[in-house]
Design a protein that fits this description.
By secondary structure, this protein is mostly beta strands. The protein is 0% helix and 39% strand. The chain is built from no helices and 4 strands. The chain is elongated, with a radius of gyration of 13 Å.
Length: 67
């Protein structure tokens, strides 16, 4: 859920949503842990267009542990 900014939501599987509108909600369509071997995945969330590694962007990485 993006409250103050447009957001980019991008998963380690190579998909996601770029430019999620302010106040918008992203419902991830990919079931990360369904019928798979144990692994760790992630989703990067950042202000739209800046990416998680941009110095002025407070991006976050959400770790997903599939057991």
């Amino acid at each position: 859920h993006s409250v103050d900014y447009e957001a980019d939501v991008w998963g380690s599987y190579g998909g996601g949503f770029l430019g999620l509108s302010e106040g918008g909600t992203w419902n991830e369509p990919v079931e990360r842990c369904a019928n798979q071997f144990p692994h760790t995945a992630h989703t990067d969330i950042s202000i739209a267009g800046l990416g998680v590694n941009h110095p002025s962007c407070p991006g976050k990485r959400m770790i997903i542990n599939c057991l």
